[in-house]
Design a protein that fits this description.
By secondary structure, this protein is α+β, with helices and mostly antiparallel strands. It folds into four domains: 6-149, Thiol:disulfide interchange protein DsbD, N-terminal domain (Immunoglobulin-like), CATH 2.60.40.1250; 163-321, Thiol:disulfide interchange protein DsbD, N-terminal domain (Immunoglobulin-like, Sandwich), CATH 2.60.40.1250; 339-608, no CATH class; 617-734, Glutaredoxin, CATH 3.40.30. 42% of the residues lie in helices and 22% in strands. The chain contains 21 helices and 30 strands. It has a five-stranded antiparallel beta sheet. It has a five-stranded antiparallel beta sheet with strand order 17-20-14-13-24. A hairpin with a 3-residue loop joins β6 and β7. α6 (359-372) runs antiparallel to α10 (459-474), α7 packs antiparallel against α12 and α14 packs across α15 (588-600). Residues 1-31, 156-180, 310-334 and 444-458 have low confidence and may be disordered.
């Protein structure tokens, strides 16, 4: 860590000295045919594409630009997204260290949105470069101010579909400095679903990211083509917030999520489906307000399936003119009924036992059952305690998701591993279990017991903890059948969602329950003997490999410094456990030293939590574009097929698909043959744009694969487990 800080301080001092001397150096060399900065780097701008500004630098011979010295600052009424720059030529600068530079020319694209009534695109562009042959000089940072006319489709309208929509858009259109984020398209900002609780009662749900809200008194509902039927008065739930609106005065709004029960008045006998139209107004808190949004949903009155609100006609248009490029999300995953979701969850949980992320922890449970020998009562106790741990963990996970969903936050399957400190703690726990299986330390009579407290409580506590650990390490994996079940759970009412999570837990625990309660299966277990000790020691090595995998995930999240701190924590943990074993039966002083050594493990973990995130590695991969909503919209507007891959380093299924399919020559050949672009989103760390895309396709987590056709139609969502033939066929169809 000290080396890292020393280098950063040295680099900053040298860079400051360089920039201070640069004007003088430049002045001394004006007579040596050094070009003025605007001739060495000729900047041109193109604002013809709505929502995207394109910049081009023509770089004179023997000159270069620094990639890392470019800065873009928005003018009044303009909000800029992240600039898209190609990788530069890498070399070691004597003053700046490792840098990337551009020669001859470079293109950049910057997504943007504008406030209501804005007609000009104003921004400042700063850049810096050098002359690389004698006389070698570096220019000071140079800033150019651009003021460009906006294309008609990108200029924010001064009036919406109605007077109230226009007033709201003007009210929220000027985003104050420090607003939370670039406004989302309306399809992502306001997700609308409906389900029939029974043929006479509907439950409507608006789900919004954090800081987005809808107006209670500007929600209009009606049935379409339903003679003899009408909707009763909505039963507005508690939880509305009184909001002081500059145009409307005191109004009631709902943040995060609104669940609205509505009764159907009239005889629904013999009707299977109804079409509901919902119109509403909403805003981003501290940001823009949207014109009137209209969504239609077709509700199945018999199955209780969740129906997705498909964006309607031009009234649902978003910002920046890109709404036509946003695909209508598929409704398939949310058409699953409760009974089907429970069966899928049970099967998915059962198959989860075979996933590589779960197998190391299951070895703990397997050894516990083998140690039970021919004692049926003991086997049943092992299995029931393990099942209780699994079910309690899935229940806690479900309750947490429901709580965050109701608060307007996004949470997906496996997202706890986006937190580096949790990854580090989990790696330490797995490492400690490996040391226990290797015989370095014994946590009580049963192998599954972890920690002194659990050891004192006997085998049941250890089995319960093993069930908890199995759920934690299982979450990065997505087994077949799980996708539809989890998509249903993430959108269904609370009771149905919890039932699905519990079904997943029953599926995960089912093999051990079967062995414990079916004598015929128990007879297949080998008899215990001296070979058991060797088996325990052998099974320690999958534990060490799991800890190594978690360290690799941490490296991709926070870099080498974080991994170094994790290794220090592991060494201190090993020291504490070794001393714990050596001090058994000794005096209180030795036990106090054990506690002190255990507390030292917290110091590197505390420092690890403060290490900044690393840059997105996807941006440097050859032939891969980092996911960006504006870039996706631009590609779709030019009729380019796009293969979107949402992945994460902690997702085992994602890595298996990458190794088996997406890294292969047939996939690259299919991309080239069809003129398709490979776009990847890395969800290893939190990313609101990727979260919004996952929500748009009702995906509970990664992996998510969507193929967008060149004709501008809806994207096709692929299964979570890929094959080469499946992907090639999807790309061929997208290019037709």
């Amino acid at each position: 860590m000290s080396k890292f800080l020393h280098r950063a301080l040295s680099t900053g001092w040298l860079l400051g000295l360089l920039l201070a001397l640069a004007p003088a150096a430049f002045a001394q060399t004006q007579d040596d045919n050094i070009l003025p900065v605007t001739e060495a780097y000729k900047l041109s701008a193109d604002a013809g594409t709505p929502g995207v500004l394109k910049l081009h630098w023509t770089i004179a011979p023997d000159y270069y630009l620094y990639r890392g010295r470019m800065k873009f600052t928005a003018g009044p009424g303009v909000t800029l997204g992240e600039a898209q720059l190609p990788p530069g030529e890498k070399h070691d600068d004597p003053y700046l260290g490792p840098v990337e530079t551009y020669h001859h020319g470079v293109d950049a694209s910057i997504p943007y949105t504008v406030a209501a009534g804005t007609t000009r695109l104003a921004l400042s562009v700063q850049y810096q470069g050098c002359h690389e042959v004698e006389p070698k000089i570096c220019y000071p940072p140079h800033t150019e101010h651009l003021d460009l006319p906006l294309p008609a489709a990108a200029a924010a309208p001064a009036a919406g579909g109605n007077a109230l929509g226009a007033a709201l858009q003007q009210l929220g259109g000027s985003m104050p400095t420090g607003a939370s984020s670039t406004p989302l398209p309306p399809e992502q900002a306001f997700r609308f679903t409906a389900l029939a609780q029974d043929p006479q009662h509907l439950l409507l749900r608006w789900t919004m990211p954090k800081d987005y809200y809808v107006y209670r008194d500007h929600i209009a509902l009606k049935l379409k083509d339903a003679d003899g039927l009408k909707l009763g008065a909505p039963a507005w739930p508690a939880g509305g917030v009184v909001h002081q609106d500059a145009q409307l005065g005191a109004v009631t709004v709902y943040f995060g999520e609104l669940e609205l029960p509505v009764m159907i008045e009239g005889d629904t006998t013999g009707r299977r489906q109804l079409t509901l139209e919902a119109s509403f107004l909403g805003c981003q808190d501290g940001g823009v307000c949207y014109p009137l949004i209209t969504r239609d949903v077709t509700v199945d009155l018999q199955s209780g399936a969740v129906a997705n609100g498909v964006p309607g006609t031009p009234a649902a248009t978003g910002h920046g003119g890109t709404s036509n490029a946003v695909a209508t999300p598929p409704t398939g995953p949310l058409q699953t009924g409760l009974f089907a979701a429970l069966l899928l969850a049970l099967g998915g949980g059962l198959i989860l036992n075979l996933m590589p992320c779960v197998l190391p922890v299951l070895s703990l449970k397997a050894v516990g059952l083998l140690e039970s020998g021919e004692n049926p009562a003991r086997r049943r106790r092992h299995a029931l305690a393990y099942t209780a741990g699994v079910l309690a963990s899935f229940l806690a996970l479900g309750l947490g998701i429901l709580a965050l969903r109701s608060a307007g936050h996004a949470l997906g399957w496996g997202t706890q591993l986006q937190q580096p400190i949790l990854v580090a703690v989990l790696a330490c726990v797995i490492f400690a279990l490996g040391l226990s299986m290797s015989g370095v330390v014994q946590f009580g009579a049963a192998l599954g017991n972890v920690g002194g407290t659990l050891a004192n409580r006997g085998g049941a506590a250890g089995d319960f903890f093993t069930g908890v650990l199995a759920v934690v390490v299982a979450s990065p994996c997505t087994a077949p059948f799980m996708g539809s079940a989890l998509a249903y759970a993430f959108a269904a009412p609370a009771a149905n969602a919890l039932a699905v999570f519990l079904a997943l837990g029953v599926g995960l625990a089912l093999p051990f329950l079967a062995i414990a309660f079916v004598p015929a299966l128990a007879r297949w277990l080998p008899k215990p003997g001296r070979w058991m000790e060797t088996l325990k020691q052998v099974l320690a090595f999958p534990m060490y490999l799991t800890a190594a995998w978690l360290a690799w995930v941490l490296a991709n999240q926070r870099g080498a410094d974080a991994v170094g701190l994790l290794l220090v924590a592991m060494v201190l943990l090993a020291l504490a456990l070794w001393w714990f074993e050596r001090s058994r039966g000794r005096g209180p002083l030795r036990h106090a030293l054990t506690i002190l050594l255990a507390l030292t493990v917290l110091a590197p973990l505390y420092l690890l939590a403060r290490v900044p995130a690393t840059a997105n590695a996807v941006a440097t991969q050859a032939g891969v574009l980092a996911y960006n909503p504006a870039k996706l919209a631009e590609l779709r507007a030019t009729n380019t097929p796009v293969f979107v891959d949402m992945t994460a380093d902690w997702c085992i299924t994602c890595k298996a698909n990458e190794h088996a399919v997406l890294a292969g020559a047939p996939f690259r050949a299919a991309l080239a043959r069809n003129g398709a672009v490979y776009m990847k989103g890395d969800w290893t760390n939190e990313d609101p744009a990727i979260t919004a895309f996952l929500q748009q396709y009702h995906s509970p987590g990664v992996p998510l694969y969507v193929v967008f056709p060149k004709g501008g139609g809806a994207g096709r969502q692929l299964p979570t487990v890929l094959t080469t033939a499946l992907v090639e066929r999807a790309l061929d169809e997208a290019a037709r």
